[in-house]
Design a protein that fits this description.
The protein has 139 residues and is an alpha+beta fold. It has helices spanning 8-26, 58-69, and strands spanning 36-43, 55-56, 72-84, 90-101, 107-119, 122-130. A hairpin with a 5-residue loop joins strand 4 and strand 5. The termini are far apart.
């Protein structure tokens, strides 16, 4: 298995993931569109019942993301660990959020595990596991 420093495809995919986390943290949500494939499949196994799951397609994911991030006055993502897999077009990441809910001022802190698949340097598959109990801060 080669590491990020010596495998250009793995390094490019990691840079894409880092750019996604940076765009979320900086509030540059429009930048996300250029980082995911048109046929992205986003799965949120513990997501709310009102949300389609999976979310299929970049446009649907962008619409869902825009609605989600609009609920927060700030949303910072901290990457805790990234695990390279044998396949350089996949990675697993642990990350956590530090956010503030706009309508009630509650802190929203959650922990995530993301399983991401890449094609041509873009995210084409993303399965995100989070703690659904943390979403109580939204109410």
């Amino acid at each position: 298995m080669s590491d990020t420093a010596t495998d250009p495809r793995r390094a490019a995919n990691r840079a894409t993931f880092d750019a996604i986390m940076d765009a979320i943290t900086s509030g540059a949500y429009g930048d996300l569109e250029s980082l995911v494939a048109e046929d992205l499949v986003f799965e949120l196994p513990y997501g709310p019942s009102f949300m389609p799951n999976p979310v299929v397609g970049r446009d649907a994911w962008m619409a869902m993301s825009t609605q989600t991030f609009a609920m927060f006055s700030s949303f910072v993502q901290h990457v805790d660990e990234v695990y390279d897999l044998v396949d350089p077009d996949m990675l697993i990441a642990e990350y956590h959020s530090d956010a503030v809910v706009t309508h009630n001022g509650n802190d929203y802190r959650n922990h995530y595990i993301g399983v991401l698949t890449f094609r041509d340097g873009l995210v084409c598959g993303w399965r995100e596991f989070h703690n659904p109990d943390a979403t109580k801060a939204l109410t």
